[in-house]
Amino acid sequence: MGGQGSGRPEITGYHVPVLLEETITALNVNPDGIYLDGTAGGGGHSYEIAKRLKSGRLIALDQDPDAVKAASERLQGLPAEVVRANFVEMEEVLKARGIYQVDGILMDIGVSSHQLDSAERGFSYHYDAPLDMRMSQEGATAADLVNTLDEKQLADIFFKFGEEKYARPIARAIVKYRESGQAVSTTGQLAEIVKNSVPQSYRRDGHPARKVFQALRIAVNSELDRLSTALDTAFKCLRVGGRLAVITFHSLEDRIVKQRFAEFCKGCVCPPEFPVCVCGRTPAAKQVFRKPVEATAEEQERNPRSRSAKLRCIEKIHDY
Fold first, then answer.
1. In a domain, 73, yes or no
2. Residue 305, phi then psi, degrees to nearest 5
3. Do 98 and 177 sit in the same domain of this protein?
4. Burial of 169 (0-12, 13-18, 19+ CB in 10 A)
5. pLDDT tens for residues 69-86?
6. Which of 70, 91, 139, 232 has the CB geometry, 3.0–4.6 Å to 11, for a possible disulfide?
7. Domain that includes residue 96, residue range
């Protein structure tokens, strides 16, 4: 990742970050503030935050060691520190540095271009590679799930995390393949199994394995559970007046962010038949913009991966 017009060379293998100008504007960076980027990637968004700081400070997190290396190079000489950690650990990372509240937090959710384009990472159905998909490069792989879960468990993952309507026949085909004495060990094997287990008409609407690969990636990395937890932690770590900006790339993530932000911005929860409020609840946050910000036509043309991106941002107006 890297910022356009930033005056610093791009880090090889990382794309220009999506919604860059819109995100920086939403965060309303204070030169003397403290900021956290929960998903550093190659350091593109982080760089644009850090270069605006004077006495301020940026803590950038990423669980991927490749990203930590790239972001560290990108941010060299700026008031920024890159830490290998998942964003659910942000509170512990901040406290270890004597920081208890920050002025802004950014979370850019999902797989990075670098991870997709590195065939050996096993995220993409475009390359034949070991079926891995671990963002942290630690723990159980996608191959472990595909080769050990039963038909119902696989189908549930494909339906819940991929919204795949052919989840059951795909899961059945995977189990049948395993029963023949073969393991599903590569992305190419899995993509071929999926392709052969769905109707031919379904193959015309993009690659038939797209949703299955998305579902496995989410399951391997516990993405939705971690996102939900991280949103609560992030809001807790914000000081009053601080902003939380989140970029999502598919409907499951965006739904979680939209609903959680609505909860933060919700006031009175008394039943409508009550003549006056007795709960005393006031909104803890306000929306920075009413609808999610999406990439312009120009950005979508320049970077096709920005087409599904949505940016939501809230500002904390008081602590619970």
1. yes
2. -70, -10
3. no
4. middle
5. 999 999 999 999 999 999
6. 70
7. 20-108+223-316
Minimal CA–CA distance to 131: which of 222, 193, 203?
193
Is residue 143 within 8 A of residue 131, CB to CB? The reply is yes
Picking from 22-36, 118-132, 153-167, which range would have the lowest pLDDT averaged per residue? 118-132
In the chain, pLDDT over 90 holds for what percent of residues? 75
Q: How many residues does the chain have?
A: 320
At position 176, the amino acid (one-letter code) is: K
Plot region of 84 (φ>0 → left; ψ -120 to 50 → alpha; else → beta): beta
Highest mean pLDDT among 71-85, 114-128, 131-145: 71-85
pLDDT exceeds cutoff 50 at 101:
yes
| Residues 285, 151 share a domain | no
Rounded CA-CA distance 238/279 in Å is 24
Taken in order 252, 224, 139, 83, the sign of the CA dihedral is: positive
Instruction: Say whether both 27 and 156 belong to one domain.
Output: no
- The verdict on 183 and 238 lying in the same domain is no
CA angle 296, 301, 305 (to 5 degrees): 85
Q: Which helix (H) or strand (E) holds 216?
A: helix 210-221
Whole-prediction pTM:
0.86
